[in-house]
Amino acid sequence: MQQAMLACALALINEGEVGWIEDPVFLQARNVLAFVGAKIIPRPIDREGLVIGKCSRQNSPRLILVTPSHQFPLGVTMSLRRRKALIEFAESRDGYILEDDYDSEFRFDGPPLPCLQGLDNAGRVIYTGTMSKILYPSLRLGFLVAPPQLVDTLVKVRAVMDQHSPAIDQATLARFITEGFFLSHVKRIRELYAQRRVFFIEQFQKWLGDYFDLEVTPAGLHFIAWLRRGEDFPLFMRAREQTGIWPRPLSFFCIKAQLDPAFVFGFAAWSQAQIEQSLAKLASAVKQLKQRGAGNGSSFQIHPLSPATSSYWPSTAVRSN
Ligand SMILES: Cc1ncc(COP(=O)(O)O)c(C=O)c1O
Predict the structure, then answer these.
(1) Which residues contact 187 (CB under 8 A, 6 or more apart)?
(2) 151-201 pLDDT, tens per residue?
(3) Domain 185-292 CATH class label
(4) Ligand 1 atom nearest to CA at 67
(5) How many whole angstroms separate alpha carbon 2 and alpha carbon 313?
(6) d(C-alpha 229, C-alpha 237), whole Å
(7) Protein residue closest via CA to atom 5 of ligand 1
(8) Is residue 145 classed as helix, strand or coil in its secondary structure?
(9) Looking at beta carbons, which pairs linking 161-166 to residues 24 or more positions away fall under 8 Å?
């Protein structure tokens, strides 16, 4: 996916031209736009997905990076109305949309969703997928389906990046798919993750339900848990340090968005025993910290890991529209 994002950004954006990202965002999307010197405009997310809003002609985006099936990290599915509006908007501004369909195989309720690209009759959507979630991230294989007019340019960009992904890995994956193993693998892990998901929800309510409202969305491999009381935030930050269990604060993924305090919990990579032990451990650490009054007067700030302030972040400024 990161390769796909970089190839598209190199192909479509000159330094100083505008790129839109979601806010909160998959941080690599922002890294890629920063790397090509784009003027980055973070767009808020509402219940229908990325908010298009008002946009002056000179700030028209060349590239819009979105996760319509399952917004990362909030989990919102982009509505049909917003999908159509986004394609129309991109067409009217001569821009392109990169659809990052990173975890579309993991929809646990309802029928599978058609992709944004399926609605595109204007040749404005580049569809991308990854093997990172369905197989494993270190494989570094994914795919990109581009409108015909972009294919030559993207092939040239890829040729200067590294020519191609490892041929043996690609051939092995191709056989894995064509001989039917991929499909049975998808079925098997979808079932496994569905079980872990239900177990996680139960255990979460048991151990941490007093502290959080868990937002259960129909898709994906993580949940957002909203803190009921903002003052508990420092306690959980401290409990993370003590236990080595690291739910990410939602603020880590925010650029300008000011959202209520919440944490992002992944559930797919852990066995049921690990899920139960980890949540119990976190709950017990928080309880002890609370008894010791450790949250009071804590020096933790509400956005301690905000990318805007973290030192490893590229220095390209985020500009507002
Ligand atoms: C929104 C999003 N897109 C893509 C990916 C996968 O990226 P890659 O294929 O580069 O491993 C992830 C992984 O966490 C993700 O969260």
Answers:
(1) none
(2) 999 999 999 999 999 999 999 999 999 999 999 999 999 999 999 999 999
(3) alpha beta
(4) 1
(5) 17
(6) 14
(7) 102
(8) strand
(9) 161/3, 161/6, 161/7, 161/10, 165/3, 165/140, 165/141
Question: What is residue 109's predicted lDDT score, i.e. its pLDDT?
Answer: 87
Our answer on whether the CB atom of 103 is closer than 6 Å to any ligand 1 atom is no
Q: What is the pLDDT of residue 13?
A: 98
The reply to whether 185-292 shares the fold of 2-177 is: no
Dist CA 176 CA 181 (whole Å): 5
- Ligand 1 near 106 CB (within 6 A): no
Fold of 2-177: Aspartate Aminotransferase; domain 2 (3.40.640)
Q: What is the pLDDT of residues 27-69, one digit of tens each?
A: 999 999 999 999 999 999 999 999 999 999 999 999 999 999 9
Q: Which residues contact 274 (CB under 8 A, 6 or more apart)?
A: none
Asked if pLDDT for residue 287 goes beyond 70, the answer is yes
**Contact, 19 vs 255, CB < 8 A?**
no
DSSP conformational letter for 206: H
Q: Where are the domains of the chain?
A: 2-177, 185-292
With CA atoms as reference, report the closest residue to 69 among 27, 129, 120.
129
Is the model's pTM score more than 0.85?
Answer: yes
DSSP-assigned states of every residue in 58-77: GG-EEEEEE--SS-TTT-PP
Q: Is pLDDT of 72 > 90?
A: yes
Structure tokens at 155: 């092939």
Answer yes or no: is the C-beta of 230 below 6 A from any ligand 1 atom.
no
pLDDT value of position 314? 32
Q: Is the pLDDT of residue 142 over 80?
A: yes
